Amino acid sequence: MKLAILSRSLKSYSTRRLKEAALDRGINVKVLDTLKFAIDLKRGDPDLYFRGRQLSDYDAVLPRIGASITYYGTAVVRQFQEMDVFCANTAHGIANSRDKLRSLQILARHHIGIPETTFVRDKRDVLPAIERVGGAPVIIKLIEGTQGIGVLLADTVKAAESIIELLQSQKQNVLIQKFVAESRGRDIRALVVGDRVVAAMRRVAQGQEFRSNVHRGGIAEPIDLPEEYAEAAIRSAQILGLRVAGVDMLESATGPQIMEVNSSPGLEGIESCTQLDVAGAIIDYIAAQVEFPEIDIRQRLTVSKGYGVSEILVPDGSEFVGKTISDVDLSSKDLNVLTLNRGSKVIPNPRADRILEPGDKLLCFGKLESMRGMVPARAQRRRRPKVMDLPDTAVTNPDSDGHNGHD
């Protein structure tokens, strides 16, 4: 197998350990500077050049994309994907995780526990937003901060207002987040590889510092991760589209709350703390996946005209409630059920005798027209509105009032 590690930090601990682990397993590995690639696009033949020369063939890529080069880095990873090279983390997954707001939006929709969070731009919305997350103290975060940089604790509403106003005046996007008092100064980092947690540690802040990051002087201790926390970490990584991730969690009174999912987690702290070969676990996973890779099912299944992947909601009062999947007879409609979402549970390949309940969501592949036919008539009308003629108004016909304004 030939593996490329995309990294700008050739001498960093993580890059050196990953290369070392690959060489120990007899893998042909090279570390390539992400910014030295050129992306060539032409019909049916995507290609990459590295340092001015056409890139040779690789079986797999392990991206280590820093926050400062997210856009170009994900473009390079995406090009590898279009060339059918297995990528340990996809461009889509990296982009999802890099934006704190986007990642929390996605996780919240999938019933993952997160600290209550709000995002505002108008200064008049700041006070109501602070109240909605429980009042001061609150955490204020830059959307793209890393290693604890851009994370502030405001003890009073006045302090929070001042900090937010200052950051917004510098064109910074900030999140306002509930302060989880019972987890003050500590969090859990779980290293997810594929469908399991390979190592976990608790990080504890020192002195008056509330941020527990090792980079901020926090002390780490190995832990046996409770099943509830392991499941939350794995699901969070999978939902965002990451196969290798560091998942940071708070230990709240209501269970795990995901703070952040990192697509390029550092390995030095967790390997030193747990004395586990995390780099080796990552390389072993990649080697196994190259032989039997996962694919982007939505992209592959939506290239046929009239066919696609969509989610069908079974609302309360639906004719399908109380019926089994076989009773609904989806096969005759040229539909296949891929998963059934019930609350926070995802049931893959649900049995034909499973009874449907209100609120169930069926992820289906098949004829889009058939799926539209299963949507209640009222919702169908909302989804497929009739295109009307342009009305004759003062806006569309400026001559009617002699004024043609501009936005």
TrEMBL record:
The protein's name is: Ribosomal protein S6--L-glutamate ligase
Q: Is-annotated flag, keyword Methyltransferase? A: no
Q: What is the lineage of its organism?
A: Bacteria, Pseudomonadati, Pseudomonadota, Gammaproteobacteria, Oceanospirillales
Domain named RCK C-terminal: residues: 296-380
Q: What Gene Ontology terms describe where this protein resides (cellular component)? A: ribosome
Q: Which organism is it from?
A: Marinobacterium sediminicola
GO MF annotation terms: ligase activity
ATP-grasp domain boundaries: 104-287
Name what cofactor the protein needs: Mg(2+); Mn(2+)
**Region labeled Disordered — which residues?**
375-407
Alphabetized, the UniProt keywords read: ATP-binding, Ligase, Magnesium, Manganese, Metal-binding, Nucleotide-binding, Protein biosynthesis, Ribonucleoprotein, Ribosomal protein
